[in-house]
């Protein structure tokens, strides 16, 4: 499974690089943006799992960027941690009311910010931090690499396991083949999109080995979803 992707939007080079260094040291994939316009473009391209967003940016402010991100369907489910030198209560309230999921004032403790990032990723990407996932009669334990359906153990290969974990993190969400390639195989590996169909077929076969309805839905022209 590809590591969680974090988008850092910060125009101060030193702060941006210190945060990126700490995130990469913990195994996260990091994308950097210096301006609001660049952040919006990169958000669409990299589909991050979490955004760390500075309020004071050149051009479009972090507040406006947050508002625009939360208007989109994909942006609504992505945690946004806002960074700001504004310490007044009304500023914090404004940031949260705009759609930010958390508000951290500068200067901040990197250790505390990292803890907040981990906490939000436990909710948005639970499998990536080792949490057991359940959906109806299927359970998946990332740490022991075990899958069960209706109390029957299911044997999955590594790719099928990562594929199921991706589906189970967000049941009902439709993933395109390209999105699955990024999340399951990784952005730096070239794999033909038809490979996704092969592995989805293998996953379906494995999940149905003890009977039961096919839990994976094919959405014509769009991709696949669980449930």
Architecture overview:
The longest helix is centred in the middle third of the chain and has 15 residues, at 110-124. The chain has 2 domains: 5-124, Response regulator (Rossmann fold); 129-226, Winged helix-like DNA-binding domain superfamily/Winged helix DNA-binding domain (Arc Repressor Mutant, subunit A). With 227 residues, it is an alpha/beta fold. The strands form 3 sheets. A 5-stranded parallel sheet has the order 2-1-3-4-5, with helices on both faces. Strands 6-7-8-9 form a 4-stranded antiparallel sheet, covered by helices on one side. Helix 1 links the parallel strand 1 (5-9) and strand 2. The two termini are 20 Å apart. It is built from 9 helices and 11 strands. The model has no long low-confidence stretch (mean pLDDT 89). Helix 2 runs parallel beside helix 3 (62-71).
In short:
With 227 residues, this protein is α/β, with parallel strands linked by helices.
Residue-averaged pLDDT: 89
Q: What's the SSE pattern?
A: EHEHEHHEHEHEEEEHHHEE
- The end-to-end distance, rounded to whole angstroms, is 20 Å
List low-pLDDT spans.
none
Question: Whole-number radius of gyration?
Answer: 19 Å
Q: Architecture of the largest domain in CATH?
A: 3-Layer(aba) Sandwich
H/I helix tally: 9
What is the CATH T-level topology of the largest domain? Rossmann fold
- How would you describe the oligomerization state of the chains in this entry? single chain
Query: Briefly, what CATH class of the largest domain?
Result: Alpha Beta
Please give the share of residues in helix.
40-55%
The total number of structural domains is 2
As laid out across the biggest beta sheet, the strand order is 2-1-3-4-5
Helix/strand-derived class?
alpha/beta
For the sheet with most strands, the description reads:
5 strands, parallel
The CATH superfamily name of the largest domain is: Response regulator
Shape, per Cα inertia axes: elongated
Count the E strands.
11
């Amino acid at each position: 499974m590809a590591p969680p992707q974090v988008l850092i939007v910060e125009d101060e080079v030193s702060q941006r690089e210190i945060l990126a260094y700490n995130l990469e040291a913990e195994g996260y994939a990091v994308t950097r943006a210096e301006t609001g316009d660049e952040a919006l473009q990169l958000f669409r391209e990299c589909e991050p799992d979490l955004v760390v967003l500075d309020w004071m940016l050149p051009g479009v402010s972090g507040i406006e960027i947050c508002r625009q991100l939360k208007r989109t369907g994909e942006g609504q489910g992505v945690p946004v941690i806002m960074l700001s030198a504004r310490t007044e209560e009304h500023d914090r309230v404004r940031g949260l009311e705009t759609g930010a999921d958390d508000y951290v004032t500068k200067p901040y403790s990197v250790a505390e910010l990292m803890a907040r990032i981990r906490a939000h990723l436990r909710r948005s990407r639970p499998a990536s931090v080792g949490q057991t996932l359940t959906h109806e009669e299927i359970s998946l334990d990332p740490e022991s690499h075990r899958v069960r359906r209706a109390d029957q153990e299911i044997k999955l290969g590594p790719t099928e396991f990562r594929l199921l974990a991706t589906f189970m993190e967000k049941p009902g969400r439709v993933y395109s083949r390209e999105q699955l390639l990024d999340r399951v195989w990784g952005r730096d590996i070239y794999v033909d999109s038809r490979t996704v169909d092969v592995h989805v077929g293998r996953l379906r076969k494995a999940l149905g080995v003890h009977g039961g309805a096919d839990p994976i839905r094919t959405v014509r022209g769009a991709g696949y979803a669980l449930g």
